[in-house]
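Project standup — Tuesday

K.O.: blocked on the structure for the chain from last sprint. Re-posting the sequence here as requested.
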Amino acid sequence: MPLFSWRPEYSVNDPALDIHHRKLFDILNAVYENVMNSLEVDNVLPAINELSAYTKYHLMAEERYMREKGFQGIDAHIAEHRLFTHKIEMLKTNYHGNNMEVTQELIVLLGEWLLQHVIREDRKY
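H.V.: unblocked you, prediction finished:
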């Protein structure tokens, strides 16, 4: 069972960005399922790498969208993006082997991000 499921009320009313956000849900659910179904977390580093790469791609698209729309709170929003990407990079740096603690941190970080930022902050633009 997935940790988070996409709901229509999470939409930011832009189909491309909604697809991006759904992909972030999918990555989180994949990491969560891997951890819940196995004591081994060998597949976590590829998920962290995928998350890192996809997050950069998504945030660039989202920031471009906000600029095009003239979103007033863009500077603060971008600062939140930078903090999030920094945290992901720190997790990548600290991940060594089957590190369950880092895996759990990743699940919590992305879960909080989805709930706090994507669902609340992204809906402002």
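K.O.: great, moving the ticket to review. The mean pLDDT is 83. DSSP finds four helices and no strands in the chain.
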